[in-house]
Design brief:
The radius of gyration is 24 Å and the shape is globular. By secondary structure, it is of the alpha+beta class. It contains 21 helices and 17 strands. The strands form six sheets. Strands 1-2-5-4-3 form a five-stranded mixed beta sheet. A three-stranded antiparallel beta sheet has the order 10-11-12. A three-stranded antiparallel beta sheet has the order 15-16-17. The longest helix has 29 residues.
């Protein structure tokens, strides 16, 4: 399905702004604009052509070009179900802030400043997104080395004076923040205006990971809030520029590690689209089935920990009982429970083992009854209702302004689901319903995830039915020149051995071009932008994290509420820090 802006609208934009340049390709359509007219064109796209949903903003570094940095905005029209991208060169290393148009751009602009050093005129508080204040480098610049600058003298405490160190030992390390750096970072984020500034996290089980919340409080009520991320930042996008496309697959596992298979599929689909690879039908149904099992797995972890946060221990034990069964299924098929790297460019790593479909069918029958147990305990429980109803209400306008996706967007009644908008793999051949909320509060998000698990069971059953008829079919398109051969082929064919060597050493020589493609992760839209220069490694790989943008709305929704509500609100947004920090 072609999801980019139509020719008719591009002509209308060109008539209105004759100086723009338009580049229309199958995988990525963008408008090149001047910095001076950026805000006017973005406002025209939002108000006149209804591209009102903010999807992402990021930068690309071209060291030999002047200006050096290029900003890329991706927008979506909910009515037309179309995307458009806008590119602009950052003259004098600066761009106008677009927070006045989309509030969700605030964190994206902070990230661009942090990673590239691009300033934003009119940004109300341009601070670093992941690194600490005072750090003097911008890591996603092309001239920043992969392992950083080893400038800090930090000798080993284990090395004795008479010992000879290893040949690769160095007493110099990359810089790490001091307590003074962290204090400076905190004060730069928030100015105390009320009674007390409360630090919640980053090492607190209620924060669902290493997230550092700052609450400016008056009594029990939160009057201002900001969030400091980066404790789990690993420079995944920088690493991607130094790996082949296949080598990067395990890194997608370790972002949203609770739904690793969904992340793998989203990434691999983008690479396949850029390469023009069409995986076998069997692989498409296996991927769809595994993604939905992973979605149930993720929602069960959310349900158990969310209930535990609010004081319901029994549900935690129940949810993990069923989740363990899914983990066993994933391990039996992929070989590893958590970070499986099971998905491959062109298909999947292994065929389904004998008896796997029977086990999955049995699980689906059993799980349908277990969901009823969860609902009996929680859905009408008066304490559960008191903690969730009318807490953290999200509106339709919030969805568009902040770029909210997944359950968080659908709780506000917005039917935004990538599986329906741009179906990949076998999603266009399975039937499922899209539950929507009516209020947009924490209770709606609970109801939606419960219903989504039922829909996922329905999808899994349909995939099993199809796969039972495909037992002898191929599971990977290894005849394609860009796809790694199977081990059996490598061991039995000199041609396959040479092909395997070339792909592993030199990488998939992806044709020059760019693409943005996304998948429906349990935390929302997980998008991958890939810019290829015709080499075996991406020139730029941008990861659009659904959890990152969804978490940003927390700072608005918590105003005027208590810390107890913060626990419920954060749990209902369901962030995973490995994905927000990347």
């Amino acid at each position: 399905m072609h999801l980019w802006i139509e020719e008719k609208e591009l002509k209308e934009i060109k008539d209105k702004f004759p100086s723009i340049a338009i580049n229309k390709e199958e995988n990525f359509t963008y408008i090149q604009v001047k910095k001076s007219q950026l805000l006017e064109i973005l406002r025209f796209l939002k108000d006149r052509l209804n591209y009102k949903m903010f999807i992402d903003f990021f930068c690309i570094d071209f060291p030999l070009h002047n200006p050096r940095f290029q900003g890329v905005y991706i927008l979506f029209s909910p009515e037309k179900k179309k995307r458009v991208a806008v590119k602009v060169w950052a003259e004098n290393n600066s761009l106008p802030s677009v927070i006045s148009l989309w509030k969700g751009a605030k964190w994206a602009e902070r990230e661009a400043w942090d990673m590239f050093g691009v300033q934003f005129e009119g940004h109300d508080n341009l601070v670093r997104m992941f690194l600490w204040e005072g750090y003097k480098y911008h890591p996603l610049r092309k001239d920043f080395p992969l392992k950083g600058y080893e400038e800090v003298y930090l000798p080993s405490l284990n090395l004795r004076p008479d010992e000879i160190p290893a040949h690769n030992y160095s007493p110099y390390h990359t810089e790490i923040p001091t307590m003074e750096d962290l204090e400076k970072t905190q004060k730069k984020r928030m100015e105390k205006r009320n009674q007390i500034v409360l630090n919640w996290g980053p090492l607190h089980p209620g924060t669902h990971g290493t997230i550092w919340f700052l609450f400016d409080m008056e009594g029990e009520y939160i009057k201002n809030c900001d969030i400091i991320l980066g404790q789990l930042h690993r420079g995944v996008e920088k690493i991607a520029e130094n790996l082949t496309y296949t080598q990067f697959i395990p890194y997608t596992d370790r972002m949203d590690y609770i739904s690793a298979l969904c992340s793998q599929v989203a990434y691999v689909n983008a690479v396949e689209k850029l390469l023009g690879i069409n995986p076998p039908e069997k692989a498409k149904f296996i991927r769809t089935m595994m993604c939905e099992l992973q979605r149930i797995n993720s929602h069960l972890l959310w349900l158990g920990t969310y209930a535990l946060d609010l004081g319901a221990l029994t549900i935690f034990l129940y949810a993990f009982r069923e989740r363990e069964k899914i983990m066993d299924i994933i391990e039996g098929i992929a070989g590893i429970r958590l970070n499986s790297s099971y998905i491959r460019i062109g298909g999947v790593a292994k065929d389904l083992p004998e008896g796997a479909l029977d086990v999955i069918k049995h699980f689906c029958e059993d799980f349908s009854e277990k969901i009823k147990e969860y609902e009996t305990i929680l859905t009408k429980n008066r304490i559960w209702l008191k903690r969730n109803v009318n807490v953290g209400i999200i509106t339709e306008e919030d969805v568009y302004s902040y770029g909210l996706t997944g359950v968080v967007a659908r709780s506000a009644g917005v039917p935004y689901d990538i599986r329906m908008i741009q179906p990949t793999d076998a999603y266009d051949r399975v039937d499922f319903e899209l539950p929507l909320g009516t209020v947009g509060d924490c209770y709606d998000r609970y109801l939606l995830r419960m219903e989504e698990m039922k829909q996922s069971v329905n999808i899994v059953r349909q995939c099993v039915k199809k796969l039972e008829k495909m037992k002898d079919e191929n599971y990977i398109a290894s005849d394609n020149p860009y796809v790694l051969p199977t081990l059996e082929e490598v061991f039995n064919s000199i041609e396959s051995m040479v092909k395997d060597f070339n792909l592993r050493i030199y990488g998939e020589q992806v044709p020059e071009g760019e693409i943005y493609l996304s998948g429906e992760n349990p935390r929302g839209e997980l998008g991958f932008y890939i810019n290829s220069k015709g080499e075996g490694r991406p020139y730029r790989l941008r990861i659009r994290s659904g959890a990152f943008y969804n978490l940003q709305i927390f700072t608005k929704l918590i105003i005027g509420r208590t810390v107890a509500d913060a626990v419920a609100l954060l749990g209902s947004l369901d962030p995973v820090v490995g994905e927000t920090d990347r």
